[in-house]
Amino acid sequence: MDLHTVEWIASARSRSDLGALGPDVAPLAGGSELFASPRPELTGLVDLLSLQWPPLVIRSDGLEIAATCTLAELSRLPAVPGWTAQPLFFECCGALFGSFKIWNVATVGGNICTSLPAGPMIALACALDAEVLIWRSDGTDEVMPASGFVTGNMTNVLQTGDVLRSLHLPVRALRARTAYRKIALSPLGRSGAVLVGRLDADGFLLTVTGATLRPELLRYPAVPSAGQLQRDLARLDSWFTDAHGAADWRRAVSAVLGEEIRTELEEETPTS
Amino acid sequence: MKLTVNGEKIEATAAPGQSLRSFLRDQEHFEVKKGCDSGDCGACSVLLDGVPLHSCIYPARRADGKAVTTVAGLGKDGDLSPLQQRFVDAAGFQCGFCTPGMVVTASTLDEKNLDALPRMLSGNLCRCTGYRAIEDAVRGTHRPVGEPRQPEPLTSAAAVGRACGRVGTSLPAPASTRIVSGQEPFTLDIAVPGLLHLAVLASPHAHARITRIDVSAAAALPGVHAVLTHADSPATLYSSARHENRLDDPDDTLVLDDVVRFRGQRVAAVVADTVAIAEQAVGLITVDYDELPAVFDPRAALAPGAALVHGDKDATTSRLADPSRNLVAQMRGEHGDLAAGLALASTVVTGTWQTQRVSHVQIETHATIGWIEDGRLVLRTATQVPFLVHKEICRIFALEPADVRVFAARVGGGFGGKQEILTEDIVTLAVLTTGRPVQYEFTRVDELTISPVRHPFEVSVTLGATDDGRLTALGIEVLSDTGAYGNHGPGVMYHGCSESMALYSVPNKRVDARCVYTNNPPSGAFRGYGLGQVIFGIESALDELARKLDLNPFDLRRLNSIGPTDALVVTEPEGDDLIIGSYGLDQCLDLAEAALARGNGAEVPAGPQWRVGEGMASAMIATMPPNGHFSGASIRLEPDGTYTLGIGTVEFGNGTTTVHAQISATALNTTPDRVKIRQSDTDVAEYDTGAYGSAGVTVAGKAVLAAAGALAAKLRLAAAERTGLLAASWMPEPTGLRSGSAFVPLTELAGPDGLEATGAENGALRSLAFNVHAFRVAVNTLTGEVRILQSIQAADAGVVMNPEQCRGQIEGGVAQAIGTSLYEEIVLDGAGTVTTRVLRNYHVPQLADVPVTEIYFANTRDILGPYGAKSMSESTYNPVAPALANAVRDAIGVRPFELPMSRDRIWRLLQA
Fold first, then answer.
1. Is the CB of B118 less than 8 angstroms away from the CB of A188?
2. Fewer C-beta neighbours within 10 Å, C or N terminus of chain A?
3. Minimal CA–CA distance to B649: which of B624, B663, B665, B631?
C-alpha cells in the first residue's frame, strides 16, 4: 500500500548513509513487509539494496547470506557438494505464507528482522547455528548467534539505527542431516509451528519456531529418547495463541512433529 | 522516472512511499486491481522485467528503467493469449476481479511448476469460483459439463435455431474476453477529472458519546475541502441494509452520529485532494468522548441492567422489538405441541451449535465515486442494489428521485455484502457539501473490521423421534448477535428459521428466536441469509438422531422431508406465495448417496492417526425473497437490426447477464452477440429490486423473458401488418422474420425509431430449490487436520440454464462454505475490537484448500422459473458445514458444535 507519510527515499551507497536511520526513518529492503501495513510513523526510507551486497557468498567455512538476499535467490542456490542441509533452504522458504511472488522480493534479513514467530528464515538460521552480523548505529560490528536475535513476538535485539548485515551459516551445520516439519491451520497457511531437527558430529538440535513467541532450541549430545524430548518440549513456556493456532494445540502438534523429526534422524543415522 | 508499461514508454513521478500498484492505476492502468494492498490476494500482480510481483507492496520508484507487463500486455480483446482464451473457455472466473492477477501469475508457470500449482497460486485468491475452473484454465484440462437435455423452446420454430447461446448451453459470459484481458471496468476503473478523496476518522471506543469535535486544524490543512461531522449529518434515521420493503430493517443509523456504538464506526470524514492529505487531516481532528457502558455478549445484552445500545430509539419509529432490552426482533411460534411431540418420542436429541463471524471478502472492496452532472447527483458504486440505494439516498438527503442517478459497473463480488449502504451515504454528503467529485474506497482492513459480517448464531435444537425414525418434535432456539446496528438483523433471523424448519414434515414444531444488539461491529447479509447457521444446527442434530436410531442419514431425511405435495410449515403454514414448483430433493438424496457409495478412489493417508468418516446434509431455499421482488425489463430492436436489453439487476459474478443474453436469444431466436445488454443503472433500466436472494434468474430473468416474448409478438404483428400474412405464421430468425418463403428483415421492421417491448416480474410466487451435500473425510487425530477425500453436491436447480455457470456457482458456494467450515473466523477480543484485521490473519480458501466437488443435477422443471429454472447461488453454500461436521463426527466419534472446525478445535475435541 502507499505509505503516505514517507517524504523521501535515500539510496544507501555506504555504511555511513545508514546514519539517516531513526525512529521515523526505516531501512527498506524488499519492501514486502514495510509496504504491507500502514506505517504512519515513517517520514523516510533508506534503501539498502543500493549497497549491492553480494547475496550469497560460498566460503570454505560456510555460507554468508546478505540480509538483502531474496528468498528466491536463496531457494535457487545450486546444490553445493557435501551440503546435505541445503534442501532446508527451499523447505524454509516454503514455510513463508507469502507466495512465490513474495519470494522474488522478500529478503532473508527482512524476514528475520520482522521477527514474527512464523518467520521461516529465523527457523533456518537457528537450526543451522547461524551467526548474525549486526551493524550497530555507533559504527561497531556485533556478531551473535541467530538464536539470540529474536527476543519475542516481533521484537529483537536491534536498536534504532542498527542494521542486520548478514548471516553466516557454518559449514559443519551445512553438512549435517536435517529434518523439517511445518504445520498450519490450513495446508499452506501461515505457520502454526515450524520445527527443524539437525544431527551432526556436535549432536542433535531441535529448533522450535512458529509455535513459540521466540525460537526455542533443544540441544543434545546425540539423538535423545522420545521421552526425553517430550519432557523437554513440555517444559517450554512460550507457546502462544493467535489466529494461526491456540497455544495448547501448538504445544501438542510440536510434540508430534518433534517426535517425527527425532525418529527420522535416528532411523537414518548411518551405521558406520 | 521512466519505464515501459506493456511496451509503452511512460515518464511520470512516483511519490517516495508510493506502491507500484497505485502508480500504475494513476497511469490509468486500471487492469491492476486492489484486493488487499498487503501482498496477500494477488489481484495486483504484474510482471517487472518478466518477474511476477505483487505490485501493491512493491515500491514504485524501483520500477524506474524497467518494463512492466500487466494482463493487458499479455493479450487484448480480439487478440487473446492462449492462456487468456483458456480462462474464457473454462469459465475460469465469475466476478473477474481477481482474474488479471491470476492470469499474470499463471503466465509465468511452466510445466515443471504446474506440479506445484497449489503453491504457485497460493498468493492469488479467488472468492467466486472455488478454483476448479481456474485450475482447468491454467492446465488446459477443461471439459464441458455433461451436456444436459435441451429445454423446450419457446416457439416450435426455435428448433431451427442455433444450439449455441440458447438456454441450456454453456454460453461464456458476454464480458469474458474483456475480463481475461483486464479491460472490463469495475467500480473505480475510471479516471474522473478533479476527483477528491475521502478518509474517515474511526471511533476508538465501542460505545461513547461525542462531546466535542475540533476540526479546525484538519480544515486548515492545505488540500482539504471539507471536514464532515455529526453536525453536518442529515437527521434522518435509516438502515444500511437495503430491501424491497424498507420497513424490513430498523431505522437506527445516521450518516454521522454523535453516539458511536462500535469500534471503527465513522466519527468524522475529511474530503481532500488526495488520500494522503485526507488521512493526514483525519489525524488532526481532536474528539472528546464520554465513554458509555458497552455490552459484547448477546446473552448478557438481554439481561436486566445491560448497557443499552440503542436505548435512545423509539421502538415504533425505528421498528425495534424492545430497545430497552437490546431486542431487535423476536420470532416465537409453535405448530402442534412440542412437549407433546417429545412425549411421544422414544429418542430425543438436543444440542447447541455456534457459528462464527465470517467476512465476505469480495476481492473488490466497497467503493463509491460520486459527482454532480447537469445538476444531478450521480453515484457510481459497488452495489448489488442500485435502485434501492437510489431510493434510500433520496430519502436520507431529501432529494427528488429525478435528481439522482445510481449505477454499478461490473461489481467485483457481492455475497450479500453489497446489499448495504456503506459508502454511498458519506460520499453523497461529501459531494453535496463540496460540489466536487469524491471517491471513498474501503481498505481491506475496513472490510475485515467494519463491513458487516455473517451473523453469529447460537442454535439450540431439540428433536424427538419414534423408533422407526419418524420425527415427532422439532424445536429450535436461536440467538443472533446483530452487533451495533440492526441492518439485516430481523430478516436474517426470520429467514434462518424458515426453510430450514419447513423442509421437515413434523407434527410438532417450535421456534424461539431472538436478534439482539451488542457493541460488536455490525452483522449483515451473507450468502444463505441465516439459513446456513440454523441448518448447521438442525442437520447436525438429525445426524445425531440417525446415529442413535442406527438409521442411514439419507433414509432419515427421506422419511421426514416434505414431499412434493406436502404443506410448508415453519410454525405457521407458509403463505400461498411459496409453492413447491418442482421437487428434486428425492433425486438429490439418491444422487449424493450413490456417489458417496461409489467413492472416488481417493487414498486415505497412511498411519493409525487417520480416521475416516462420511457425512451428509440437506438444504432447502426459496427461489427468491418474500414479500415481492420486482424487476422490469425492456428490450428494443434497434434500427440496425440488433437488440438492446435494459435490465436493472447487477452483474457481480452471479452470471445473470449471461443467462439474460441466453433468454433473449432463445425467445427471439437470435444469437447472444446480437443482444447488447445495458444494466444496473437507474437512468437506463426499469426498476429492479436488486441482485439478492438469488433473484437474478428467477425474477430478473423472468422479466427478460416476458419482455423478449412481448417483442417477438410485436415483431410478428408488424410483419403481419406489412404483408397481410397471419401474425402467427411469422417466426423470428437472427436477421429477420420468416413466414414460408416470405422474409422481412429486422432492419425494416425496426424502422428509424426501433421497436420496443417491456416485461415485468413481481415475485408474487416463489418456488423452492434443494441441495444435498456429502463428504468423505480423513481426520488426523494427532493434529486435528481434516482432509476431504470426496466432496459431492447434488442440486435441484430446475432446468439448468447454463451448465458451466451453474457448476461454477455450486463450486464457488462449496468453496466459500469450506472456508466457513474449516478456516474462516473474524475474531474479536471480547471488547469489540477485531483482531483479524488483514487477510494473512483471516484465511480465505486458497487453491490448496478446496477439493474438486462432484456435482449432480436433479432432473426437474420448475413451473415458476423462466424455462423451468430455479435459483442456485446461495443454496449451494448451506448444506456444506453440517455435512462436513457430520463426516468429522463419523470419523472421530466426537461431534463438533462450533465453527470453524479448525485444526486446533478438532484436536481439542479429541482431548476430552
1. yes
2. C
3. B631
- The 3 state secondary structure assigned to B461-489 is EEEEECCCCCEEEEEEEEEEEEECCCCCH
**Maximum distance among all alpha carbons in chain B?**
85
**DSSP letters spanning A181-229:** EEEESSTTSSEEEEEEEEEETTEEEEEEESSBSS-EEEEESSPPPHHHH
- The CATH number assigned to the domain holding A116 equals 3.30.465.10
Q: Residue B851 — φ and ψ, nearest 5°?
A: -75, 165
Task: Evaluate whether B390 touches B404 at the Cβ level (below 8 Å).
Answer: yes
pLDDT of residue A140 exceeding 80, the answer is: yes
Assess if residue A2 is contained within a domain: no
pLDDT at B143: 85
Residue A253 forms part of a structural domain = yes
Inter-chain touch A256–B783, beta carbons under 8 Å: yes
Domain count, chain A: 3
Residue A271 pLDDT more than 60? no
Domain boundary among A121, A137, A172: A172
Say whether B10 sits in a helix, a strand or coil.
strand
Give residue B588's Cα distance to chain centre: 24
Shortest Cα–Cα distance, A86 to chain B (Å): 20
- Least confident range of A94-103, A163-172, A223-232, B149-158: B149-158
Distances (CA, A) of B438 to A4, B209, B372: 19, 28, 10
Residues A96, A29 share a domain: no
Helices B132-139, B803-818: axis angle to 10 degrees equals 120
Across the interface, do A2 and B17 touch by the CB < 8 Å criterion? yes
Query: Identity (one letter) of the amino acid at B44?
Result: C
Does residue A28 sit in the same domain as residue A59? Answer: no
Chain B residue closest in CA terms to A36? B38
Enter the C-alpha cell of residue B124: 492469488
Is the CB of residue A119 less than 8 Å away from at least one CB of chain B?
Answer: no
Predicted local distance difference test score (pLDDT) of residue B693: 87
Beta-carbon separation of A188 and B122 below 8 A: yes
pLDDT at residue A267, rounded to an integer: 85
Same domain, yes or no: A90 and A189? no
Q: Are residues A96 and A166 in the same domain?
A: yes
In this prediction the pTM is 0.97
Q: Is A44 within the bounds of a domain?
A: yes
Q: Can you give the residue range of the structural domain that contains A13?
A: 8-50
Q: Based on the fold, state whether residues A63 and A111 are members of the same structural domain.
A: yes
From the list A31, A99, A244, the residue facing B59 with the nearest CB is: A31
pLDDT the model gives residue A268: 64
Report whether the peptide linkage leading into residue B900 is cis, meaning its omega lies within 30 degrees of zero: yes
Residue in A31, A49, A101 nearest the CB of B52: A101
Tell which of B54, B110, B781, B836 to mutate to test the A interface (max A CBs under 10 Å): B54
Residues B675, B661 contacting (CB under 8 angstroms): yes
Do residues B334 and B558 touch, judged by C-beta distance below 8 A?
A: no
CA nearest A3 in B: which residue?
Answer: B17
Based on the domain organization, do A165 and A185 belong to the same domain?
no
DSSP state of B71: H
Bin B755: left if φ > 0, else alpha if -120 < ψ < 50, else beta: beta
Kindly tell me the number of DSSP H helices and DSSP E strands found in chain A. 8, 14
- Whether residue A210 lies inside any domain: the answer is yes
Cell numbers linked to B441 = 474506497
Locate the chain A residue with the closest alpha carbon to B834. A243
- The answer to whether residues A162 and A219 belong to one domain is no
pLDDT for the residue A272? 42
User: A96 touching B, CB under 8 A?
Assistant: no
Nearest CB partner across the interface for A249, out of B835, B836, B908: B908
Q: Which grid cell sits at B468? A: 422407526
What the block records as the C-alpha cell of B250 is 430498523
Residues A151 and A43 in one domain: no
